[in-house]
Amino acid sequence: MGSTSDKVSGKANEMTGKAKQAVGEATGDNEMRAKGAVQETKGKAQVVEGKAKDKVKDAVDKV
Predict the structure, then answer these.
(1) Closest CA to 36 of 51, 22, 48
(2) CA-to-CA distance for 35 and 18, rounded, in angstroms?
(3) Does residue 1 sit in helix, strand or coil?
């Protein structure tokens, strides 16, 4: 998976996770809120991974 796709997937997971948390909050569904929090965290990690890959690629390109 490339850095761009990591970042795009990550943002999608963040947004979906936040939406799940909002639905869980509105309906009192703690399981939905928890799943949303996990998905949001996963998304943030994917974005960080994509940014790290960009930095490595930039460093290699400079060599």
Answers:
(1) 22
(2) 10
(3) coil
pLDDT, tens digit (0-9, with 9 covering 90-100), for 11-21: 999 999 999 99
Entry pTM: 0.84
Which residue's structure tokens are 């799940």?
A: 20
> Which parts of the chain are beta strand (E)?
none
Q: How many CB atoms lie within 10 A of CB 36?
A: 21
Closest CA to 35 of 46, 47, 22: 22
Report whether 55 contacts 29 (CB < 8 A): no
Helix axis angle for 3-27 and 30-62, nearest 10°, is: 160
Structure tokens at 57: 């690629």
CA angle 8, 21, 42 (to 5 degrees): 40
